[in-house]
Amino acid sequence: MVTTWRRETFGSRIGLVGIFDLVVFGGTGDLARRKILPALFKRFCAGQMPKPSRLIGAARTDMDTEAYRAFVRIAIKEFVDIPDGDDAALEAFLAQLEYVVLDARGDTGWATLQGMMAPDRVRAFYFSVGPGLFEDLACKLHQWNLTEDDSRIVVEKPFGRDLETAQELNAILAAHFHESQIYRIDHYLGKETVQNLMAVRFGNMLFEPLWNSQYIDHIQITVAETVGVAGRDVYYERAGAMRDMVQNHLMQLLCLIAMEPPAKFEPDAVRDEKLKVIRALDPVEPHHIVRGQYTSADGVASYREDVGNDRSKTESFMALKCHLSNWRWAGTPFYLRTGKRMEVRNSKITVVFKDAPHSIFGPEAGRHNNELTIVLQPNEGITLDVTIKEPGQGGMRLMDVPLDMSFAEALGEGSHAPDAYERLIMDVIRGNQTLFMRNDEVEAAWAWTDPLIRGWESRGDVPKPYDSFTTGPDGAAQLLRRDGREWRGLLS
């Protein structure tokens, strides 16, 4: 096991993975159990949690450190594939864990946590709790002198539910921390393929000259899930697909696809360009918005049954047609689509290039164009469709074939693409904010989103029903067909 400092190249910078204390508030919660703890264990196995670094769980649950280690052991074995009989790494990881019973709104546990903090190491505090506790935790950290100039806090979405609450939340955090200390985490930005968007665009001369409205017909961004909202019903009924997915995840994907090349691959340079994209978004006309709500099918409950509200007007599906008012993208539509209980689980971006201006092969050859598809999940990879001659005797018949790069195949079966949380947590320790959202970026996204939500609320719009495990309501297909286009299939 590597326990010394390790250098890693990150863009133009060298990131040092050194000794740290990571305190996870909500350390017994579902997010910690499913994502944070498994991610840290994998990074430990990769040599990125050197001794005497520590993970300190903090929660109201009454247990001691040994009981917490037993809790974490169960979580790791449930969510990480550890070969039978190979528990040495797990036991070594557990030895670097501690636990404190702590009340975010009272004084219980804070003196104990203060006594645990060691000098001369990075201190990071993960707010794996509801936003209602952010202010309490921020105040307590300063009251008990737990933070230093280079300490960091990590906050999970939702970053507010509208512009006003986002501004309030940012003000609360800014009262206690500098913006350089605040890491607003969106796990989509940690996905290997999402980061490859920038590599594909800015690392290949093949694409960048064509990356504009002169050559690109339109772009589709789809995030489809087969699960419903059961288990998240209280949150989701207040949020809906627009607040839960479009305002953050899909917005971030749109920014990475559409942004201008930053001067350098550095946090503020990248985030400056993303902010310009959000501010260039035009308001969306009502007829370019499709909202849906899944119904029961194949023995599963409907959305309204899942949330216990037979009059719910909250959308579980969203489709939008968006435009950017800038020189690069004038006239090129961006179609966004996301939904629960869809046909398959699939997240992808499809860049559809325009037809050749003149076909020398005649109408019998059909229409053919190039498409670049970036699959984010479940099978990460990139596909470029190119046109070739269909094999066989006779005339010139054309067909499209994919140049397919599956990451698992291209990099070898033994390769490990880090989980999004693995990369993002280690970026917090490194102090690299490139993949985290800035305060003005969050507020600009809400400033664009709020009028859309107010619009359908004032009109009293009701989401259109769609059968579970389909591609969504009919209106979503019509959104593209009116423009002579079609959604790319979820199964392909």
TrEMBL record:
Residues 23-196 form the Glucose-6-phosphate dehydrogenase NAD-binding domain. Pfam families: G6PD_C, G6PD_N. One of its GO terms (cellular component) is cytosol. Keywords: Carbohydrate metabolism, Glucose metabolism, NADP, Oxidoreductase. It is an enzyme of class 1 (oxidoreductase). GO terms for molecular function: glucose-6-phosphate dehydrogenase activity; NADP binding. Pathway: Carbohydrate degradation; pentose phosphate pathway; D-ribulose 5-phosphate from D-glucose 6-phosphate (oxidative stage): step 1/3. One of its GO terms (biological process) is pentose-phosphate shunt, oxidative branch. NADP(+) binds at residues 26-33, 60, 157. It catalyses: D-glucose 6-phosphate + NADP(+) = 6-phospho-D-glucono-1,5-lactone + NADPH + H(+). Substrate binds at residues 187, 191, 225, 244, 340. PROSITE patterns: G6P_DEHYDROGENASE. Residues 198-488 form the Glucose-6-phosphate dehydrogenase C-terminal domain. InterPro entries: G6P_DH, G6P_DH_AS, G6P_DH_C, G6P_DH_NAD-bd, NAD(P)-bd_dom_sf. Its EC number is 1.1.1.49. It comes from the Bacteria. Belongs to the glucose-6-phosphate dehydrogenase family. NCBIfam families: zwf. Catalyzes the oxidation of glucose 6-phosphate to 6-phosphogluconolactone. This is Glucose-6-phosphate 1-dehydrogenase. The gene is zwf.
